[in-house]
């Protein structure tokens, strides 16, 4: 049985990795364009439909989503062995996960804004460069420094999927848009469901470097397919890139997310953590001041302050907190020894296979969520997602004593997340100008990222403080897990409550010409 220190270290690393996975999982959904294309856009889509290879656009972007999700699960089977494999300490090894989280959170909004300004196809191809370089560097790494750099580069390439989904509206005819978005978004569920058991099997039977050599090959494959199949997408935004705004947003996010993710390890009252929180407040305040005064802001805060956008972002932040507990607690319960009385004694490979149905449920529910949004509006879908997520947590507290029961509850939670993440883009897209869709979605992702980071800290603290002693080792207690599930349930209900106040009707953005239809098409 691992020592208490190793268990807490692995818990911390798993917490940050699960956060990173869900942040990029969210990217697959939040970029969805929620407005039916205008007449001019339909003509553009028809033109692309006629070009050779146009039929491969959706499969290529779906494959990109699947591979992006697999990338995020590569290091899961290596978590407990990272210090040994990289000849370093547990705290240093945790940066292998933190680097991906920070790089992805900071660069994805920037990539989206650059895609609006200079073309999504160009930025899709540019995003494959750090993905390839990072995978290759990790494949060659035998120490912690190049591994951290490589994982950071992989994080920088995670903008490839949201860029692709945002391009679908320009590349796919209106009558196929809903199904295309659903397929590409669901590819993240497929990748997340398959990636963990595949990575565990490879790591168990071969050298761990094989994982990253395979990642390098898959990244090159995606780059080639994107170059050959994806056509240029019309540029909608004008103006210059806000370099100062990008630097300010990135710096503030790094300080905030680093403080939250490392607080438990470095000490919440330590000078480093207090300093990071203080720096985040100052930098983000100055960033907001700048964004309100520049002519071409990175994020238009005036648009963000509109009630429909503001409440959607607030609900996203709380939901990001609420959805996290299941992704941390369920794997722990599945793998803890049966001698605890509540652990289910599963191996890493078995745990990955048992959690796979959750990803598949997200794939199956995505088109149903799109239909619900079309019939009743995305606000109803977002509220429903929060309520279903809360119901999943309720089931977890009742069924956590059996493998089948826990898997069932996790699937219900996944259904709630799929509904909610499918509704958010429809709400955001219906309230912002077309030229600001990437920036608005990027800001929405930041909200979820912050919520998930705080959830990782809070739930991790609960599990590390509420423990039992077994064979001379400290393990998270059953009451600790139940407390974490209750916290997740409460935050899911709070998210639904906030969403219920989102105003409906015409946002008045002027993003559509007069007479053009407007409808929600959520993935």
Question: What would you note in describing this structure?
Answer:
The chain crosses the membrane at residues 57-80, 92-110, 122-142, 180-204, 210-229, 241-260, 266-290, 310-329, 349-368, 380-401, 407-434, 446-468, 480-502. It holds the Pfam family MFS_1. With 523 residues, this protein is an all-alpha fold. It has 20 helices and two strands. The protein has helices at residues 4-30, 39-50, 57-72, 82-85, 90-93, 95-118, 120-140, 144-156, 160-171, 174-205, 209-229, 243-266, 271-291, 301-304, 307-335, 348-376, 378-399, 403-429, 437-465, 478-499; strands at residues 467-470, 473-476. A hairpin with a 2-residue loop joins strand 1 and strand 2 (473-476).
